[in-house]
Write a structure and sequence with these properties.
This protein is of the alpha/beta class and 321 residues long. It is 27% helix and 23% strand. It binds guanosine-5'-triphosphate and zinc ion (ZN). Guanosine-5'-triphosphate binds next to α4 and α5.
């Protein structure tokens, strides 16, 4: 039977079969996916094939194959081994929850986040939360950001988890999809998820509250079915996901508006810095591109390790996860 992994606890997996029944499954033998050195063979979101067996009157499943992944997000192991832990796979949509001033979400944070999801090949929607608290100034800033990001192809939503404004539109965007909610601590992820699906208490807050610095806790992602046609993957205790290494010449490819101009640069390996006849710089000078995006790009090129080789949530208290 075909099924989807909803939960993994190390050696056992909860799999929802095509018959909509949840089965406890384990893995038969050792199968590994080519090209990925991961600590876990299958992850939440994976589509697997399994067969049922009856042991001591209990029916369990044995996973014997996995279907190709559409995408996956990883966490690098803390030690220097090349091993990665696959947090989740087959994600349709990431919602990046953004607050303007409480807490502050910087454009450099947003841009670093977006190159990560671009590199993973996962669609991202920006959700501006706490609109009920906006002053005129904050509102102007939000509208400006919305202009910058929608112009380059990112959908934006304005919501308030408290008043319920925009929640219907958010649910509509989630419809038929597997989503992940992400963003700084305190932006309202839990409150928003609760507004979308009252009663669904994800572990996000709970675990981060319990988390103690320096203590190594193991966290497991889990998928939840909502009461409408939508699913959420919760990654408790994990504030960000690590990015696969990228070379400096690749960074610009994950800025869609730079990538679109790349062919028009004189040099095909143009880093859009000081090179002559750079289409990106020319567009910037005509104010057709956003300077804040360009600034983030340069920061990422200059900052290397710090900016894009580490976990994207620099200030995350659970960064060591
Ligand atoms: N005014 C207002 N407050 C909100 C809104 N959404 C969330 N909050 C408040 O913001 C605070 C943080 O919300 P959480 O839902 O705990 O934020 P979180 O992103 O889950 O935080 P972590 O669990 O630390 O990652 C809480 O006090 C919420 O009540 C909103 O739309 N408007
Ligand atoms: Zn260029």
């Amino acid at each position: 039977m075909k099924g989807i992994i909803y939960k993994s606890t190390g050696s056992w997996y909860v799999v929802k079969g095509e018959d909509n029944v949840f089965y406890d499954c384990r893995i038969k033998g050792k199968f590994r996916i080519k090209g990925i050195k991961s600590t876990n063979p299958v992850a939440v979101g994976d589509s697997v094939l399994f067969e049922l067996e009856k042991v001591n009157d209990k029916i369990t499943g044995v996973i014997y194959d996995i279907e190709p992944r559409k995408n996956y997000i990883i966490r690098k192991s803390v030690n220097l081994s090349k091993q990665v832990h696959i947090l989740a796979s087959n994600i349709d949509l990431v919602f990046l929850i953004v607050t303007i001033d409480n807490p502050i979400t910087t454009t450099s944070f947003i841009d670093r986040f977006l190159i990560t999801t671009e590199a993973y090949g996962i669609e991202t929607i920006l959700v501006f939360n706490k609109t009920d608290t906006y002053s005129e100034e904050v509102s102007d800033e939000q509208l400006y950001l919305q202009y910058v990001y929608s112009k380059i192809g990112y959908s934006c939503l304005r919501v308030s988890a408290v008043t319920g404004k925009g929640i219907e539109a958010l649910k509509e965007a989630m419809n038929g999809k597997v989503s992940i909610f992400s963003g700084h601590s305190g932006v309202g992820k839990s409150t928003l998820i609760n507004a979308v699906e009252p009663g669904l208490n994800l572990k996000t807050t709970e675990i981060s509250g319990l988390h103690q610095q320096g203590q190594h806790t193991t966290t497991f992602a889990e998928m939840y079915d909502l009461s409408f046609d939508a699913r959420i993957i919760d990654t408790p205790g994990i504030r960000g996901f690590g990015l696969v290494d990228m070379e400096s010449y690749e960074v610009g490819d994950y800025f869609p508006e730079f990538f679109a101009l790349k062919e028009q640069c004189k040099f095909n390996n143009c880093l859009h810095r000081e090179e002559p006849n750079c289409a990106v710089k020319e567009a910037l000078n005509r104010d057709e591109l956003s300077w804040s995006r360009y600034k983030s790009y340069i920061q990422i090129l200059d900052g290397e390790e710090e900016s894009y080789r580490t976990d994207i949530y620099k200030d995350g208290k659970n960064q060591e996860e």
